[in-house]
Each structure stands twice: as C-alpha cells, then as structure tokens.
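Hallway conversation turned thread

IA: we were arguing at lunch whether anyone had actually written out Xanthine permease end to end. Turns out nobody had. So, for the record, here is the sequence (449 residues) and right after it the structure tokens. Reply here if something looks off.
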Amino acid sequence: MLAKHKVFALGLQHVMAMYAGAIAVPLIIGNALHLTPEQLAYLIAADMFTCGLATLLQVLSTRYFGSGLPVVLGCTFTAVGPIIAIASTSNLPTAYGAIIISGLFVVLAAPLYGKLLRFFPKIVTGSVVTIIGLSLIPVAMNNVAGGQGSADFGALHNLLLALVTLVVILLVNRFATGFLRSISVLIGLAVGTVLAYMMGMVHFGSVGEASWLRVAQPFYFGTPQFSWVAIATMIIVNIVSMVESTGVYIAVGKATEQKVEQRRIVSGLRSEGLAIMLGGIFNAFPYTAFSQNVGLISLTRVKTRNVIFAAGGIMVVLGLLPKLAALTTVIPSAVLGGAMIVMFGSVAASGMSILAEVNLRNDRNLMIVACSIAVGVGSAVLPAIFGQMPSFLQPLLQNGIVTGSVTAVVLNLLLSDKRTMETENEDGSVSGLGMDAGESATVTVGAKQ
C-alpha cells in the first residue's frame, strides 16, 4: 500500500505527462476563434476541471460505467478542426450542443461497438498499440526542438534541455529503487525546468496574472444550440475517439497485466460518453483515453488505480485554482519532449510485446502487421496526403490510429486462412479470428499464455 504522499506525487507525475496535450486544445481553439484573454483563461480552467471529472468517471467501476482501468482522460485533438469549423460558421453554442448530443450517442452506441471487438485479435490490437506509440514520436521530437512553430525551433539549448531531461530519467531508472524510481519522469521534468530557469527560459508572468479561484460555469458561452450537420460531424469525431480509446485500454491492460474484456471496454466507452456530455455542459471539449499516460505506467510499473484517482483530483483542483494551473505551464516544451521520448517509446514497445505473441513467420500475419503499421504511421506523420478528400472523410483518414486499425481489421479478414466463428470464453475474453491452428486471438491482454 503506497503512502498518501507517494500516491500524490505519482498522480502529479501523470498530470504533468498529459498537461501539455490537455491545454494545447483550448489554446489552439481559443486563439483560432479570437477569444478574449478572460475567455481563454476560462476555457483552460474548465478543460482541466472536466479532465479531472472525466478521469474519475473512468477509473470508477460500476455495473454500467467505468472501465476500472488506470486510464487518464484528456481532450481529443481530433475535435480541434471540427470545433473551429462549426464555431466559425455558426457559433460556439452550436459546437457545444453538438458535443453534448455526440456524447449521448457514445453512451448509447457503446454496447453495439462492443459486439465488434471480435475483429480485434492480437495481431490487430498489437498493430494498433504499436501505431499509437510510433505516431506519437513526432509529437515528442517537435517538443524536443522547442515546439512546433517556435522561434527557436531546433536551437541547441532546446536539444540540450531535452537531452538532460532524458538522461536524468534514464539514470534514475537505472540506479534508483522503489518510490524514487517510480517518479523518475517527475524528477526529470523538475531537473530540466530548473536548468531552463537558470538559462533564462522560464517565466512566471502568466502565474502572477492568473486568478486564485474560479468555478467552472455550465453554459459559459451561452445556451446550447443544435444543428444536424454539426451533430453528425461531432459523432464522426467521437467514433474516431472510440477506436483510439480501445487501443489505449488494451495497451493499459498489457501494462498492468489485466484482462480487457468486452464488458470493460463497453463500460469505459459509456463513461467517455458521459465525460463528453460534461465537456459540452461546462463548455470544454470531447474527451478520450490519453495514450501519453500508458507509457508512464509501463515505465514506473505502478499499476494501482489510487494514483489515477489522485491525478483526477489534482486536475479538478487545478481547474478550480487557475494560478496553480498556470504554474505547470512554465515547463519548457523541450523539457516535456525529453520525457515524451521515453513515455511514447514505451507505448510502442508495449505494442511490439503483444505482436511478439503472434507468429510473424507466417507470411499472412507479417503482411497484416507490415501494411497496417505503415498505413497508420504514414497517415499520422503526413495527414496532408488526404487533403484532397471530401471534408467529412478527412478527420477519419488523417487519424493514423483509425486508418491503421481499419487496415489491420480488413487485412486480417481477407488474408487469414483459418478464420473461426467468434466464441466467448468463460472468463469474458473473446476468441479472435485469423490465427494459425491451435492459436487463440483474444482481446484479453496481459493474461499468461
């Protein structure tokens, strides 16, 4: 049993790992829609507050809601373009009305989606988890260089900060034991930020300007309005998020050695639907399982849900105390990038671990893995390749997790020579398709073979 101060520190580490990605969405949307500084400050605070509530909903496990897995929820980048487009052509209340209805759709559609899990045997899930990790690597490297579009992109001081952060994390993992080892990322971020401060790269102006207390206000931007086009757009966005989250659940199951059966995934997606509806009510964003934190679980080997409960509580407090939230924004992008290299690489390694259980000497299996990873990573790294496609298809095609998943599922059905009918095991796991004779593909992850 971890002491309370250790649980808090580990929870804070999870918050630091996802914070940059969480606040990037409100910053991008707020600037694109030319919101006032006061409105932008509210958007960030409301986002953190709702991230915390969404995470708590996910970690809780009831009969119908919550996966019970140590999963952190954050706003999905897939929604950025559609929200900006909807708000630009109509207004923000229309965007939030669409978010609320699309969240209800996720709650109602989760059981039907669960019945499709037979199309996700290990050869598919391993490929998807690997794609998640590999597609995040460019995000890490952009941060290492100082952040996309920064004036000092690729400058030597940015590369130095990232290197020092990475080296500190590796040294702590190599020589420390117990609790210190489990907070290696937090230590690396702290050392990197202190070094950046000494180099004159850390500024506390935003902390001084932030208010001490602000309570999230329902319908801050006005009463929700409804447009069928906007609703259909946001439903497509959330279908993408459902696929993303499935991959994250499986990756977390692998990292924590837990069985991820159909019931857990359906309950988790129902909670995400509730979280999305909360996002619309508090004028925040749609939420999905964050893959950033999967690598942290693999790295620290701390699998308890209490840590994620702490992370959710910290995010709620940050949402209520903007000054504390602003304090975490002083960490330079290069420092975050150094930590991301380890975390995102760990996600990819988890996917490779799943694929290690598949017979890749079989040419058919090899082709499924090769093509799905190539298509998925290619779509993530170069989304502009689909720039000439119809606008309603672009959110799907430009998401590497979706294109990679679809490629893996279709090729598994077309190329596998010994497909069997899906049967449910007594333990709730699902026997899959497309494996060699004597093999059983399941969506159960982490069970001993």
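OS: looked through it. Confidence is low (pLDDT under 50) at residues 419-449.
IA: good, adding that to the notes. The beta strands are 73-75, 287-289.
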